[in-house]
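[Q] Does anyone have a clean structure-token version of this?
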Amino acid sequence: MQNLRNGLIACVEAGTLNELTVGFRASDYEALLKFWEVWSRPDQLPPQRAWRNWLILGGRGAGKTRAGAEWVRGVALSRKRFGEGARQIALIGESLNDVREVMIEGVSGLLGVHARWERPQWEPSRRRLQWRNGAVAYAFSADDPESLRGPQFDAAWCDELCKWRRAEAAYDMLQFGLRLGQNPRSAITTTPRPIPLLKRLLAEPGTVVSRAATKANAFQLAPQFLEQMLARYAGTRLGRQELDGELIEARADSLFPRGRIEHARVDAHPPLARIVVAIDPPASSREGADACGIVAAGVDDDGRVFVLADQSEQGLSPLSWASRAIALYRRLEADRIVVEVNQGGEMARTVLHETDASVPVSEVRATRGKVLRAEPVAALYEQGRVCHVGTFPELEDEMADFGADGLSNGRSPDRLDALVWAITSLVLMPREATPRMRSL
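[A] Here you go.
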């Protein structure tokens, strides 16, 4: 089936589909285009194992709505690939207007995905769709949970769950009504946000999750849209949520809230007076050991700091991290390398000297805990004195997850440690070198 899909898409892209379908009647051609099992991606088809909730998480334009509409079409028409058929179906959106404009009448909505001869009748005044075989779907607004009290269903499609203002109440009312048939179930299509209901669903044993980024649906999107969105938002918190479909958590006690990091983002930096590359070496390079933090930053004449690069990685040997840091030093024309020497100080000095003895190295030693060292740097972010030139997803994830008790997973914040040393050496310590101005 996948080979057939790829072949048909290639014909569409090459403009040769008409040649392939010579002799087709209009109904044959329409049937081919409506054959969802051919055109769909694996993440857009329902799981084959048992499930109560099929959670379809994806970026904007990733094909979530089409997947939800095709699932409803499949169960209403009792198509084998979609499991047990359904006769009473709930369609729930953020508002009744969303149900009508997106889920039913939209480009990827229910009326659009059906071939003409199988299309259900839409009765707006009664807010229902009715198929010739007797299956019926009813429209509901999540803003009115009480409207779900009384009706009963054997299937439901919930669209953009994370936008529902009364999500918990509407979802709970739906559960009381999902009581028909042998296997009542819900398809839930949404761009993820860290709301309690989504977290609850992800933890339930009856939930199966499909994920897709916006770029997975590139065949269906305007090329300029995808190019522009990726250029502007790739790697940002908003982009990872809205384009990649990631669930981005917010930690209440973070020293570096995500909103503050996003506000600090810039596309370029001015001429810089000093640049440093900071290293937080790991105690070991064995599998599962801490990462080696390698972060570069610079400062301008006004005392604003610009984070320039994060080349941290796990599993680097001493020679590998030294070579990587020195290469970054050369590329950025940095003033010096700053290295923490609490763990293996003699080794750190030696390996850097042996790799390139001409590189100036400043040794720093931690005398306070990680949180205390990070607090003055967090204050600089709060004052708007630190900018990120571009995006550093892994570093920024570590920053946003760093609170009064460290990282939530208990691991060492190696990227953040290197960032703290870089910024500390630039603006929170006496200068060690005569500045030299660099042009952009």
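[Q] Thanks! Anything notable?
[A] Residues 258-427 form a domain with the Nucleotidyltransferase; domain 5 fold (CATH 3.30.420.280).
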